[in-house]
Amino acid sequence: MFPDCDSLLTIEHGAFKMPIHGGAYHWFHQSIQGNSGGYGIDGLRDTYFWYLNVDPQVELESGRTVGAHLELRLRETDRFRAFVPGQVWPWEAYGFLKDDDWGTVKAGLLYKQFGIFWDGVFFGNAPYFDGMKLDADYGVSWEQTHEVTDCFKVDSYMQFFFHEDGSNGSFPGADPESLSGYTERNTGVARIVPTWTTSNGATIATGVSALVGQIDSKRVGLPDETVSAYAVDATYTRGPWKLFVEGSQRFGLFHPNNYVSGGPSDRVTNMLTGVHYTHGAVTYRASYSNSITANPGATQNMVVAGTTIAVTKHVDLYVEYVAERVDG
After folding, report:
1. pLDDT tens per residue, range 37-95
2. pTM of the shown model
């Protein structure tokens, strides 16, 4: 795959700057169980997606920065997920005001900051397929980093989302975005991450996240729902090594036909853990994640192991082995 493969253009005029860049993720798949392989997978053939990023911003005389971020994605054939409205869709689209003392305020279509942001893989992980990672909706966010001392800082996020956007990377059956007439609204997210830097240069970050929201139902026989979730995580980084672990749990009926259990599971527990080792242009990594549903119960286990090679400044090569199993 070739993320960020070309710097297309940067427009500058005085304090105004607008970088424009794009790229694509090309992917090839081969099953070791005798199923068909090739360029993509059945239902997602051809390029995984193309993207275009536009990031205008202007430095004010006060020292603050006003700007925006837009990421458009495009697929040549098929839709990214069956419930995504079309083959061209916005992934993020928000404006922001940044102040060095007060933090950054964003408004628009932006990511929920719930748990560890990402585990560095291409294929994905169980929390992502459950709709808990890389999920952008319409709302506002206040993000701040407080430098307490030279070796201790605290990152904080306070967010409120008015309405879902109808698209993310979850599987159909994971969350409300894949069910017409069952809509996420009025969702609050909070996250705090203290980070310590030790005398030997290692960093230890511990995170706590919480989510509370509503689901508005217009489906017969399916009432409105109040949902909640929490997550705790830790990340240790020293030199070429990075180790992380996250546990999360969500409560409430996010979908009447959960894709793991096949039924109206009202509790999902996730674990995500992994290790990275970077040597020069190569990063070796392995991640394990799972989904454990309740009422009815089922379990999904997923292992993703592989390497990322920075072939050139604009070309990365991912090679991954994926083992996924569902019991239930």
Report:
1. 899 988 899 999 999 999 999 999 888 999 999 999 999 999 999 999 899 999 999 99
2. 0.94
What pLDDT does 8 receive?
62
**Residue 171 near residue 259 (C-beta atoms within 8 A):** yes
Q: Are 113 and 143 in contact (CB under 8 A)?
A: yes
For Cα atoms 242, 244, 246, give the angle at the middle one, nearest 5 degrees: 165
The answer to whether the CB of 155 falls within 8 A of the CB of 145 is: yes
- Report whether 173 contacts 258 (CB < 8 A): yes
Q: Which amino acid is at 27?
A: W
Residue 244 banded pLDDT, cuts 50, 70, 90: very high
Taking residue 38's Cβ as centre, other Cβ atoms within 10 Å add up to: 12
Is the distance from CB of 293 to CB of 268 less than 8 angstroms? yes
Q: What are phi and psi of 115, to 5 degrees?
A: 75, -170
User: Which residues lie closer than 8 Å to 262 by C-beta, 6 or more apart?
Assistant: 296, 298, 328
SS (H, E, C) the chain: CEEEEEEEEEEEECCEEEEEEEEEECCEECCCCCCCCEEEECCEECCCEEEEEECCEEECCCCCEEEEEEEEEECCCCCCCCCCCCCEEEEEEEEEEEECCCEEEEEEEEECCCCCCCCCCCCCCHHHHCCCCCCEEEEEEEEEEEEEECCEEEEEEEEEEEECCCCCCCCCCCCHHHCCCEEEEEEEEEEEEEEEECCCCCEEEEEEEEEEEEEEECCCCCCCEEEEEEEEEEEEEECCEEEEEEEEEEECCCCCCCCCCCCCCCEEEEEEEEEEEEECCEEEEEEEEEEEEECCCEEEEEEEEEEEEEEECCEEEEEEEEEEEEEC
